[in-house]
Task: inverse folding
């Protein structure tokens, strides 16, 4: 963009942590540590599921896809945030902002639908155990994953197009640490009411529809659990769902608070804190919950470690 005296660069300036200037180096160390742990734990889960044939079941296939999705999800946000914590020039180009928002929405929405697919998998395993292998075949798993990705693609494509076709003044200060929907929309010259309605409806589609499907699945699961005669059997059956339920509560709780509330309640500081939760802490929490609470994953990990430390030729 040019005028008579100078060139105006089409970019946004992040100011998400500017009020914590004296703590930015400490935040860099903390966030870098959490990011590396997240990458390590997700990579471990994907590797264990890949090499252990006993984990080649729909539940763990979905878990592997979830770990891969979260690895990509954090890569879209965290490296740029870490650079900005140490840099004086905390800018992102107009195109870079659009790309970041697109992949953030694509992966986040796919994540929401993937959790719904995992809820359906638990429903089939508990309520229809005799037909589980037929209903949840590899073909069906692939179709469910593809449907999740297509839903994420659809939401990301529409929302990103609606947001970045609006006029902006450059450079503009973006009161956040990444290109999220509400902070970017606040910088637009004009707002179209129809755009706001479409974005809100897509938020309901990406959050409330999967959550509704999960609730329906768990209603049937609860009914099935209550029909189990032994207390031990009920406890064991419910424990297989505990990790998924924990992840569901954290994911949909944070996301609904950010994206399904009136604009009048928008608070940049509060939203930055919540955003840190679902961009840094939640991707770390998910593999921790699944790996530490899941007996099969722990056994596969111990076996893999044992094989690597004591090769087969030394154990014969």
Result:
């Amino acid at each position: 963009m040019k005028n008579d005296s100078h060139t105006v660069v089409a970019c946004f300036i992040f100011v998400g942590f500017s009020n914590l200037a004296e703590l930015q180096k400490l935040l860099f160390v903390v966030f870098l540590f959490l990011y590396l742990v997240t990458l390590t734990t997700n990579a471990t889960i994907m590797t264990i599921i890949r090499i252990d044939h006993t984990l080649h079941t729909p539940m763990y296939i979905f878990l592997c896809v979830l770990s891969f999705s979260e690895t990509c999800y954090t890569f879209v946000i965290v490296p740029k945030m870490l650079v900005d914590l140490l840099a004086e020039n905390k800018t992102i180009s107009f195109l870079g902002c659009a790309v970041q928002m697109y992949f953030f929405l694509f992966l986040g929405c796919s994540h929401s639908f993937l959790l719904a697919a995992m809820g359906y998998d638990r429903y089939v395993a508990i309520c229809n155990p005799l037909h589980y292998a037929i209903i949840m075949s590899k073909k069906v798993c692939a179709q469910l994953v593809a449907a999740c990705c297509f839903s994420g693609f659809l939401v990301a494509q529409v929302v990103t197009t609606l947001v970045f076709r609006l006029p902006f003044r450059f450079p503009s200060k973006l009161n956040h640490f990444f290109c999220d929907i509400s902070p970017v929309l606040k910088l637009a010259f004009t707002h179209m009411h129809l755009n706001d309605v479409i974005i809100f409806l897509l938020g309901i589609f990406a959050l409330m529809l999967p959550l509704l499907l999960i609730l329906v699945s768990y209603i049937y699961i609860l009914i099935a659990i209550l029909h189990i005669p032994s207390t031990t059997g009920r406890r064991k059956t419910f424990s297989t769902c505990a990790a998924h339920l924990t992840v569901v509560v954290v994911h949909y709780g944070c996301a609904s608070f950010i994206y399904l509330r009136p604009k009048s309640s928008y608070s940049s500081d509060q939203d930055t804190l919540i955003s840190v939760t679902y961009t840094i802490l939640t991707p770390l929490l998910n593999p921790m919950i699944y790996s530490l609470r899941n007996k099969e994953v722990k056994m596969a990990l111990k076996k893999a470690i044992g094989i690597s430390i004591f090769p087969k030729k030394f154990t014969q």
In short: The two ends are 71 Å apart (CA to CA). The mean pLDDT is 84. Residues 94-127 form the longest helix (34 residues). Residues 110 and 152 are 5 Å apart (CA to CA).
